[in-house]
Automatic annotation (TrEMBL):
<dbReference type="InterPro" id="IPR033120">
    <property type="entry name" value="HOTDOG_ACOT"/>
</dbReference>
<protein>
    <submittedName>
        <fullName>Acyl-CoA thioesterase YciA</fullName>
    </submittedName>
</protein>
<dbReference type="GO" id="GO:0005829">
    <property type="term" value="C:cytosol"/>
</dbReference>
<dbReference type="InterPro" id="IPR040170">
    <property type="entry name" value="Cytosol_ACT"/>
</dbReference>
<keyword id="KW-0378">Hydrolase</keyword>
<dbReference type="GO" id="GO:0009062">
    <property type="term" value="P:fatty acid catabolic process"/>
</dbReference>
<dbReference type="InterPro" id="IPR029069">
    <property type="entry name" value="HotDog_dom_sf"/>
</dbReference>
<dbReference type="GO" id="GO:0052816">
    <property type="term" value="F:long-chain fatty acyl-CoA hydrolase activity"/>
</dbReference>
<comment type="similarity">
    <text>Belongs to the acyl coenzyme A hydrolase family.</text>
</comment>
<dbReference type="InterPro" id="IPR006683">
    <property type="entry name" value="Thioestr_dom"/>
</dbReference>
<dbReference type="GO" id="GO:0006637">
    <property type="term" value="P:acyl-CoA metabolic process"/>
</dbReference>
<feature type="domain" description="HotDog ACOT-type">
    <location>
        <begin position="1"/>
        <end position="86"/>
    </location>
</feature>
<dbReference type="Pfam" id="PF03061">
    <property type="entry name" value="4HBT"/>
</dbReference>
C-alpha cells in the first residue's frame, strides 16, 4: 500500500505542480500476494478532479520471475489534495 501511495503521488504532484497530501484510500482490493523476486509495476490514472483534490485509480501488476507471467495484484482509489508549504489546501493549477 505504501508503494501504491508513493507511485500515485508522482502523478498527483505532477498534476498539482507541487506538494500534495493523501487524504483517503478507498476500494482497495487484494487479488493475489506479491512474492519475493516479483517485478512490481504501479500504474495510475486521474479519474476526476475537484477544485483542490483529485482521485487517482491505481493498479499494481507483477511480472513473476522466472516465468514472466503478468498478474494484476491489487487496485485502489487514492484521493490527494494539493497543499501549500504550510500544509493548507490550495487550488489545482489551471491545465495548460
Amino acid at each position: 500500500m505504501a508503494q501504491m501511495d508513493l507511485g500515485s503521488s508522482v502523478l498527483a504532484r505532477t498534476r498539482a505542480r507541487g506538494r500534495v497530501a493523501t487524504v483517503a484510500v478507498e476500494a482497495m482490493t487484494f487479488y493475489k500476494p506479491v512474492h519475493v523476486g516479483d517485478l512490481v509495476s504501479i500504474h495510475g490514472e486521474i479519474q476526476n478532479e475537484g477544485t483542490t483534490s483529485m482521485r487517482i485509480g491505481v493498479e499494481v501488476w507483477v511480472t513473476r520471475q522466472p516465468s514472466g507471467e503478468l498478474l494484476k495484484m491489487t487496485e485502489a482509489v487514492f484521493t490527494f489534495v494539493a497543499v501549500d508549504d504550510s500544509g493548507n489546501k490550495r487550488p489545482l493549477p489551471v491545465k495548460s
